[in-house]
Structure formats: structure tokens, C-alpha cells
Amino acid sequence: MRVLVLTDNEFIYNQFKELIKQKQYRESIFDFFFSESNELFKKKYFSEDFKPINLKQRIDEVLSKYQLVMSLHCKQLFPEELVNRIRCINVHPGFNPYNRGWFPQVFSIINKLPVGVTIHEMDEQLDHGMIIVQEKIDTFQWETSYDIYKRIQDLEIKLLKTHLRSILDNKYELVSPASEGNINLKKDFNSLCEINLNDMVTFREAIDYFRAMSFLGYKNAYFYDESGRKIFVDINLEIETEKGCGKDNE
Ligand code: 0FX
User: Fold this and answer.
1) Which of 44, 59, 207, 238 has the smallest C-beta neighbourhood within 10 Å, fewest atoms?
2) How remote is the CA of residue 47 from the centroid of ligand 1, in Å?
3) In contact, 33 and 58? CB cutoff 8 Å
4) Hey, where are the domains in the chain?
5) Choosing from 92, 120, 128, 163, which is the catalytic residue?
6) Phi and psi (nearest 5°) for 69?
7) What is the pTM of this model?
8) What kind of architecture, by CATH, is found in domain 2-184?
């Protein structure tokens, strides 16, 4: 069978390419694409084997050439016509139906809803279709969004290793999501970023907020100082390894 794989995530792209080297996948053809808006991939990967695609503009071609489409973290919304006419599988870094959409672990740290990984068949709504497999992860108070996201990615690869064969063979039992759940969009994340210095919150809420907004390589939470300078804030959390806290436990 011929499979279109659409990914804008470097870790998952590299891991997935390794996975399909296994003998059992040799008879399948995987064609890799990324989104046109992915400037990093254009610079780093553009080639005959890995190039941009605009799904909306190429529906007919996709339908005629492929038997399966897989979305492994991608920046574009799948057109309704496509998800209704060909099996499209989404590997989603969240535990559906909770915190569907943007950056699930960020919102889960704040609203305490479950987080994990869901592999599901796509329908017209975002992160919404029937579930093939999903797994929750426990999170801990010392973990930032970054720490949790790294574990989510590892779990995505683990679940792909276990379930790719049955996904290709279309041999799995589908389960309905528990409810419609809730959804967060990019604008919800953006509106989290500005800190109102006069907000009254508990330390617990403040620490959870900063955990949610701390992700290595991204500047998220910020406030303005008296002279109007924008100040970004990150949190650093460390578990005690030996005894005590403070200056050398004297
Ligand atoms: O691979 P991915 O999680 O994102 C991709 C697509 O780009 C995205 O549009 C799609 N919704 C998702 C399923 O797949 O990588 P990312 O670098 O966009 O985000 C990874 C994490 O980085 C995110 O969970 C939170 C953090 N992040 C990301 C951005 C862009 C931030 O903390 N701040 C940011 O500004």
C-alpha cells in the first residue's frame, strides 16, 4: 500500500523513518511531506523524498495515489473532503477528548485534565474522531510543559511501534471518545502568555502556571516592567537529590 505521511515534527519524522526500516514494513511505500508554512523544514530537508504539500490544493491527487494518510504532528488542517474520502490517521500529543487542539499538556497542567497520546481516525472536527489507541501519562509537580512534552513524544513513538502494523492493515477496534471534551486554540494559548501582575493567585496556581508556560527554546509568559520593557519568565524546578535545601544544609 502507499501511505502519505505528513509531519512538521523533526523528532517524530526521524523516529518514524527508523521504524519503517523494519522488514515487516518493506512492502509498503511511505511518501513524506511537510507543510508549506514550515520554514525550518524547507531549509533543512527540502528534497524529492521530503517536500511541502498543500492538502487543500491536492485532494484529487492524494485520493488517487494513496490508500492511507497519516498526520504525525502537522501544521495544516485536513480538508473535510479528504477525511471523508480516505482513511486519515492522526497521532495526537493529547488524551482525547480532553484539551483537544493546541498544546494539550500546557492546558492540562493548568486545568488538571488528563494528558497523554491518542492515535485516532480523523473526522471533520479537530482531534475528534474514533480512537484506535490512547494512553494517559502521569505528570508530576516538578515537570514543566517541556518535560511532559518530551515524555509524550516518546509515548507517541512507543504506540506507533506497537500499532503501526494494525493501522496499515486496518485491523483494529475503534472506541468512541468519552465525550465531546474541550478544545483550545492558538488564541487561547496566546492569551495565557501575558501576566497581569495584579492578579491574586495562590503559589500553587502560580507555580502550575509557570510550569505550563516553560518550554526550552520558547519565550511564553511575560509582563511589562515600569518602563515598558517586556520581561519573559520561565520557571526552574529541581527535585532534591540528597539532603535538605538552602546553602549546603548547614
Ligand atoms: O510538533 P509540534 O507539537 O506541533 C505540530 C504543529 O506545528 C502544530 O501546528 C500542531 N498543532 C501539532 C499537533 O503538531 O511542535 P511545536 O514546536 O509547534 O510545539 C511543541 C510544544 O512546544 C508545544 O506543545 C508547546 C511548546 N511551544 C510551542 C510554541 C510554538 C511553546 O511553549 N511555545 C510556542 O510558541
Assistant:
1) 238
2) 24
3) no
4) 2-184
5) 92
6) -120, 135
7) 0.95
8) 3-Layer(aba) Sandwich (3.40)
